[in-house]
Write a structure and sequence with these properties.
The protein is mainly alpha-helical. It has 6 helices and 2 strands; from the N terminus they run ααααβαβα. It has 2 domains: 52 residues; 76 residues, SWIB/MDM2 domain (MDM2). The longest helix is centred in the N-terminal third of the chain and has 52 residues.
Length: 141
């Protein structure tokens, strides 16, 4: 009878050992993960400290964007006849589009052309907003 009792006791003890092994391995994984996280956190402030040491310089706009260009006759009907930068021409076209509700209500990225814009768009009835800068660039010189 003593042998039977010891066999039962060893069978019950075996699962406890397995759980201890699992606990140890998960503990190692957690320790490695926290070690990586702490090294990543400490590395980031060092990089920002170098940037903070240099004096802050303001970003200068590109001179090519600010150059005043004369619009073609077709574009002048929408934005005016004065020479203006490319960025201002795009802004004025968008003002015209919004004022006249020319965006496609189903796909707001598309612009529906009225009589003035149809000439500007080269006869197309609808143009994507991504094509707008290319089209305007052709009408500025």
């Amino acid at each position: 009878m003593a042998k039977k009792a010891t066999k039962k006791a060893t069978k019950k003890a075996a699962p406890k050992k397995a759980t201890k092994k699992v606990a140890k391995t998960t503990k190692k994984v957690v320790l490695k993960a926290t070690k990586k996280a702490t090294t990543a956190k400490t590395a980031a402030p060092k990089a920002t400290a170098k940037k903070a040491a240099t004096p802050a310089a303001k970003r200068k706009p590109n001179a090519a964007f600010m150059k005043a260009l004369t619009p073609s006759k077709i574009l002048a009907e929408i934005v005016g006849e004065k020479a203006l930068p490319r960025t201002e021409a795009i802004k004025r076209i968008w003002d015209y589009i919004k004022r006249n509700a020319l965006q496609n209500p189903l796909n707001r990225r598309n612009i529906k052309a009225d009589s003035k814009l149809k000439d500007l768009f080269g006869g197309k009835g609808e143009v994507s907003m991504f094509e707008l800068a290319t089209i305007v660039g052709k009408h500025l010189s």
